[in-house]
Amino acid sequence: MRWIFRILGIIVALALCVVAIGAALPRQHVVSRQAIYHQPAEAIWQAIMDYEKFPTWIRGVARVETFQSPDGHPGWTEILSSGMKIPLEVTDAAPPRRLVTRIADPKLPWGGTWTTEITPAPDGSVMRITEDGYVNNPVFRFMSRFVFGYTDTLDSYMKSLGAKFGEQVTIQN
Prior knowledge:
The chain is an alpha+beta fold and 173 residues long. Helix content is 35%, strand content 38%. Helix 1 (2-24) packs across helix 4. The longest helix is centred in the N-terminal third of the chain and has 23 residues, at 2-24. The model has no long low-confidence stretch (mean pLDDT 94).
């Protein structure tokens, strides 16, 4: 019976450590990643703005519902395979070179913006995404920093875009 209490004590101590470390981490983070695509900027722009087709090429997105923000900006909600809903809205766009989107639900445990910049390259285009994000929940902050990594979603998105074009891309800082 004592071993059960010891195991429970260890579990509680680990959980408290995760919360304490997460609370000590900064709430805000900024990360950037880039990839080279053998596509013109216009093709990349078309793909990233055709959000209704995201379920065909972004892993984990089951469906998309469109909306217009109260400010009149276009937006969409990504419904993930898990059932989670992530509403996103365009806050700035300069086709086909620059797109800024933000998570449009302040009740989520994380949020922020993605600034996507597409520039010509000798054999196509370079797409750089800068995430200016925050994580409110200390447990998720711990997980974001030490388990998932801040760039996991960026990397997955960029690789999925490459696969959509039949390319294997290398992600760079």
